Amino acid sequence: MSKRPDTEHDLAMPNGLSDRRGFLKAAGVGAAALGAFSVLPNAFAIGAQTGTAAGAANFYKSDRVTVQKVSFKNQFDMQVTGNLVTPRNQAAGNRAPAIIVGHPMGAVKEQSSMLYAQKLAEQGFVTLAIDLPFWGESEGQPRNLVAPEIYTEAFSAAVDYLGTREFIDRARIGVLGVCGSGCFALNAAKMDPRLRAIATVSMYDMGAVTRNGLNKSVSLEQRKALLAKAAEQRYQEFTTGKGIFLNYLPAQLPADADPVTREFWEFYRTPRGIAIPEGRTLELTQNRMLTSEIRFVNFYPFNDIETISPRPLLFITGDQAHSREFSEDAYQRAGGPKELFWVPGAGHVDLYDRADLIPWDKLTSFFKQGLAA
After folding, report:
1. Tens digit of pLDDT for each residue in 51-109?
2. Kind of pairing, strands 79-87 and 96-102?
3. Is position 304 within any domain?
4. Separation of alpha carbons 127 and 99, rounded Å
5. CATH at residue 161
6. Whole-model pTM?
7. Which H or E run includes 127?
8. Based on CB atoms within 10 Å of each CB, which residue in 25, 203, 250, 356 is the most buried?
9. Which one, of 296, 357, 365, lies nearest residue 321 by Cα?
């Protein structure tokens, strides 16, 4: 495992542009994109800035599973680290079905992924919650880099690892992607038929949202302005050797924060979901460099999604989620068998950790059927 860089030396915040709202406005993007946020429902039961939420269980610890830290190489010769979760009652000598679990974009495996990994392991699956490269305990420099091709490869590398374990049935490996990992998992499944059943929860299409904003609120001219700003910023980063990180999720929530920023903040910046990798700071978690964020502009994970058929697909989203458009889009494009499952009353982040809302029975039945012997 490579040593993490000193965070005091790899972080710079742009002067006068220290928050996402200010940066987007300066780039000419803010009005339409931020205006779209203001009309979205705030339909999740969260105590304001207290880190509480009905049924929240991000740091759930199961006494019915064992957790082992593992690591393996991807094809970029980078070490990927994950938690291998095994049912305590797994019969010796049996080859079990397995599920790879991917965390939300900018998160780490301790945020949402381990809840899903343990709950599914309780149902008899071996699960592997991975840190994507450049995040958490996986390798990759600089930290927090946006690299969709390498994210995608991590899922196939996880199949390599699982499929060479003697206690895993390599013909029964599935994948579950939460938020941004939903689109990375789909992208991997298009190329890797070893992923036999694919589920997403609160999926974000990171390409579409970067190009178009939520609900197509960003125009072509605004996108070009953002690209121009990022391109110009590369000179400063090249000259100084320091990445300039956007502080779109600040330590303190601004009074005028839009509903989407508030929704993410109430998970990532409160005890409900805070997880700080070794060598990082709270302010550095989630936040990314614009100069690498724009790589998503050329990322089209839903193109050719129909080629995954006849492997089954399940898209789970809240009917109040600001991200619901992405699950709807993927479902419409996909071949069969496929299902779009709505969780009544749930917002986007609700399905990260609200154990009382997450449809465990639906996930269990999907993977038991999709990964049947």
Report:
1. 568 899 999 999 999 999 999 999 999 999 999 999 998 877 789 999 999 999 999 99
2. unpaired
3. no
4. 5
5. 3.40.50.1820
6. 0.88
7. strand 126-130
8. 203
9. 357
